[in-house]
């Protein structure tokens, strides 16, 4: 039998990806005795938060994401100061999309409504501003000038360090195998039993595996992303050093989902260009999913749009998205157990929100009113969905 710890934590957080780590840090900063449990030995590359870089941007169609990103930028800057490390590099973000399409028009309108510093590029001046990129016929282009790159691995380590420096406890290499809801939630791992007055589940692709212990299943699809790096024909052509921006092509001709890229930086001479969707996988069987349909789409895109890259990926890494039907997050209390809080379904765009999500989930865990409207993120929106069982 496993030994029960005598300690009762104010909060136990399951999952030390960016969302769980930021939540745990916010709790510890608020003087909550907090335990952060992680199934793998840290750092690891088997979830969704590993890798050197992520895009940060305010470029969203929806007002609620823009509002959250205003605060998230401030919290990232605060984290940089607290940790004493650079986490954000401003590069700008080029968005290309069908000029008269609904998505691109909505995006432009939201940028203008929120007065987000944006440069709108006319077709005739495009190549002068953005050399070595072919703008598709009928596409418009804009630049979100404060967008950039987050140093992801570095950020995750920094947040976990800050959490520990506030007295937080991390137990890694401990997989949670059971959850017993109650006024004190009992959490069993493969090596111990812990109690907490509240529980936060931020388990990324494993969210439904854990939620099963609480009688809840969410309509989440886990997909494997082939993270592709492409060699520059002339090293530096698309580099941070040459002020090349991150980019998103909305509704590309080559596929149903967006294609995005980050300037070459982490691997000199290699630029990251990815497809914003992948094939379904079981999170523990990620490496058995070998579908390369997304890479075929990317090869066609790179050939058409980025003529300075060799159109064959030089390095392919793996990562996972946990996707909801509407691609919006789940940030809510459990429908039956109010002291169990869920952060899930970040749908491939959650990293940039890490600090604000940490703040919101910690507010829910402490029984406070969240400081942003969480109605777009409620579990209730899935009520009619076949796979949700409340
Ligand atoms: C290729 C790729 C590119 C992306 N690009 C961007 C981008 O440019 N910008 C952006 O904002 N976002 C981006 N994202 C999305 C972002 O990275 C994710 O939304 C975010 O990392 C999700 O974090 P998480 O903490 O929810 O999940 P995870 O990082 O997966 O963390 C969950 C953790 O829970 C642990 N866990 C699970 N089950 C258990 C258990 N039983 N016991 C203990 N621990 C457990 C897991 O091991 C894992 O460490 C990208 C994602 C990918 C894959
Ligand atoms: O979230 C982001 O900004 C990136 C780029 C666009 C698609 C998904 N992730």
TrEMBL record:
EC category name: oxidoreductase
Keywords in alphabetical order: FAD, Flavoprotein, Oxidoreductase
GO molecular-function term, one example from the UniProt record: sarcosine oxidase activity
UniProt xrefs under Gene3D superfamilies: D-Amino Acid Oxidase, subunit A, domain 2, FAD/NAD(P)-binding domain
EC numbers for this chain: 1.5.3.1, 1.5.3.7
A Gene Ontology cellular-component term: peroxisome
One GO term of the biological process aspect: L-lysine catabolic process to acetyl-CoA via L-pipecolate
FAD dependent oxidoreductase domain span: 10-364
Source organism superkingdom: Eukaryota
Cofactor(s) needed for function: FAD
SUPFAM superfamilies in UniProt: FAD-linked reductases, C-terminal domain, FAD/NAD(P)-binding domain
Listed NCBIfam families: PRK11259.1, soxA_mon
Record-stated family: Belongs to the MSOX/MTOX family.
Function: Metabolizes sarcosine, L-pipecolic acid and L-proline.
Protein name, per record: Peroxisomal sarcosine oxidase
Organism: Sinocyclocheilus rhinocerous
Phylogenetic placement of the source organism: Eukaryota, Metazoa, Chordata, Craniata, Vertebrata
Name of the coding gene: pipox
């Amino acid at each position: 039998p496993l030994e029960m710890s005598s300690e009762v934590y104010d909060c136990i957080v399951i999952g030390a990806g960016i969302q769980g780590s930021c939540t745990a840090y916010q709790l510890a900063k608020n003087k909550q005795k907090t335990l952060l449990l992680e199934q793998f030995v840290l750092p690891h590359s088997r979830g969704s938060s590993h890798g050197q870089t992520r895009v940060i941007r305010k470029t969203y169609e929806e007002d609620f994401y823009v509002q959250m990103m205003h605060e998230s930028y401030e919290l990232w800057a605060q984290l940089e100061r607290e940790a004493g490390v650079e986490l954000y590099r401003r590069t700008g973000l080029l968005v290309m999309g069908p000029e008269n399409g609904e998505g691109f028009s909505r995006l432009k309108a939201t940028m203008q409504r929120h007065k987000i510093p944006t440069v709108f590029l006319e077709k005739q001046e495009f190549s002068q501003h953005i050399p070595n990129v072919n703008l598709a016929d009928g596409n418009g282009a804009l630049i979100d000038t404060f967008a950039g790159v987050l140093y992801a691995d570095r950020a995750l380590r920094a947040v976990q360090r800050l959490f520990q420096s506030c007295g937080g406890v991390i137990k890694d290499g401990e997989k949670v195998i059971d959850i017993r809801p109650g006024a004190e939630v009992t959490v069993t791992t493969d090596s111990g039993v812990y109690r907490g007055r509240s529980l936060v589940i931020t388990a990324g692709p494993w969210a439904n595996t854990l939620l099963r212990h609480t009688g809840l299943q969410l309509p989440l699809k886990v997909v494997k992303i082939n993270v592709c790096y492409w060699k520059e024909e002339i090293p530096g052509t698309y580099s941070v050093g040459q002020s090349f921006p991150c980019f998103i092509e909305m509704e590309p001709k080559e596929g149903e989902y967006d294609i995005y890229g980050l300037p070459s930086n982490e691997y000199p001479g290699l630029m990251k260009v990815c497809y914003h969707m992948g094939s379904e996988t079981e999170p523990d069987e990620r490496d058995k999913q070998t579908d390369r349909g997304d890479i075929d789409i990317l090869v066609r895109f790179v050939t058409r749009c980025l003529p300075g890259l060799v159109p064959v990926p030089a390095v392919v890494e793996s990562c996972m998205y946990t996707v909801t039907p509407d691609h919006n997050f789940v940030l809510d209390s459990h429908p039956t157990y109010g002291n169990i809080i869920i952060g899930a379904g970040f749908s491939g765009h959650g990293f940039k929100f890490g600090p604000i999500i940490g703040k919101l989930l910690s507010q829910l865990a402490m029984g406070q009113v969240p400081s942003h409207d969480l109605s777009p993120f409620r579990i209730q929106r899935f009520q009619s969905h076949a796979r949700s069982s409340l």
